[in-house]
Amino acid sequence: MNRRIVLAIFALAVLAAAVILYIKLRDDDAAAGTPGSTGSSPVADNEPKAPATRPTLAPASRDTAVASSDGSAAEVTINGVRIRDHRTGDHPPVDLPPNVHAPKSHRVAPTLTADISAKIQAVMHECVTAMPAEARGAKPRLEGTIQIAIKDQQARITQSAVQLRDVVGSSVETTKQCIEQKSLGLTTPAADEPDLESYSISVTFALM
Prior knowledge:
The protein is 29% helix and 26% strand. By secondary structure, the protein is α+β, with helices and mostly antiparallel strands. Among the domains are: 1-33; 96-206, Fusion Protein Consisting Of Minor Coat Protein, Glycine Rich Linker, Tola, And A His Tag, Chain: A, Domain 2 (2-Layer Sandwich), CATH 3.30.1150. It has a four-stranded antiparallel sheet. A two-stranded antiparallel sheet has the order 1-2. Strand 3 and strand 4 (154-167) form a beta hairpin.
C-alpha cells in the first residue's frame, strides 16, 4: 500500500479519537455542572418550593355596645354604664346598672355586704319620712345597685343608683335623689379585704 495512504488513514484515526475524547469530556462537564465548577452538586431549578403563605383575615371584632341593625336590643346608659336589653316580650325597661362579677373574681365577705346594706337602709328611712302615705302602693320598695371601693381595709360608697317601686307622685324623684346623694361617701370597716377599685352590691328594701 502506498505510504501516503497509510499516513492519511493514521491521521484520520487520530483525529477521530480526539473528537470522541472531546465530546466525552464535554458531556462529563455538563453532567457535573457548569464548566470550571468545583464539583459541588448543582441545585435543580425545579426543586419544590414552600407554598407562599396566604394572608388571613382576623375575625371581625364585636362591640356589644353597638345597637343591632334590626333593633332587637334596647340600649340605655345608667351612671355611665351602657346596657343592652335582649329580653323579648313585655318587660319593664332596665333602669339600674347590672350587678355583675367576673368568674373567679374576689367576693367580699357577707358581713361587709350586710354593713353596706344597713348604711343604705338607714339613709332610705331618713329620706322617705317626707313622702306622703298616699304616694305608696301596696308593696312599695327600694331597689338599687351600689358601687364601693376598698382601700386600706376601709370600704367607701362611690356610686349609688336606686329606684323606687310601687311609688307614685312628685315625691318619687326627690326621695330617690335624697337616697343617692346621702349614701355617697359613706364608709364602713372592711377587715381582711384586699384593695378594690370598684365592686357592686345589689340592695332591696321594703319602704316602711
